[in-house]
Amino acid sequence: MIAHTPTIERTIQVGDMAVTLRTGNRRTRALSVTSAGAIVVHAPHGTSNATAIDLVKRRREWIYRQIAQRTYDRANHPVKELVNGETFLLLGTTYLLHLAPPGPHPEPTVQHHASDDGPRLRISNTLARNPVKARRELIAWYANQAQEWLDSTGRQNVQLGIRQCPTLRASSRATTRWATYRPGRGLVLHWAVAQLAEENLHTLIAESLHLNHLGDLHQLHRSCKELWLGKILQIGPSRSA
Length: 241
What we know:
Mean pLDDT: 83
Structural class: alpha/beta
Largest sheet: 4 strands, mixed
Number of helices: 6
Number of domains: 2
Strand order of the largest sheet: 1-2-4-3
Order of helices and strands: EEEEHHEEEEEHHEEEHHE
Low-confidence stretches: 235-241
Strand content: 25-35%
Shape: elongated
Helix content: 25-40%
């Protein structure tokens, strides 16, 4: 009969991740990610820090997927209303929605610009009266903005970490994960991540491509919980200035 000894816990650091090493009366090693996103290594008594660290590094991609899924499950994604003064994020900057009458000449459906009152996002009041079409146009605009960022800043960032830069593209498909990387097929970003501040975008790409220069993953995951995913409320009266 094997004598029972109490479970022992200690915290180890694996890169930017704090990991709980929990040892007890067991013969195998396993990994788990709690609902709060905490990483736990379950192992037999006598397991060294180096052995636990090696396990975490080998399962790093699985860990990131679990954390991302739990973050998504707990998310409180906002609902937008197509009225003057509604807020939309682009690369971490807040834009106030401005509804305007259609112009005399063809122009982009969604436009953003600076004004004396701060950044503005402009759509026509005609488009705002059609929430289904407005949602589609806003998602397409976000995907285009994400693609423009990838083609410039994002590509430069990736080239600092690896020799051959993979194909980088943004997707307007709502089912796409925040970022999906497949060797030989490139990296695909969800359109909604164009709302993230640039430092969070750099972290997301580095995480997805398994680069060493990761940023603050917890900040990234907190920010992803608050992304607008295209849900629009019915039209109401304009907000007062």
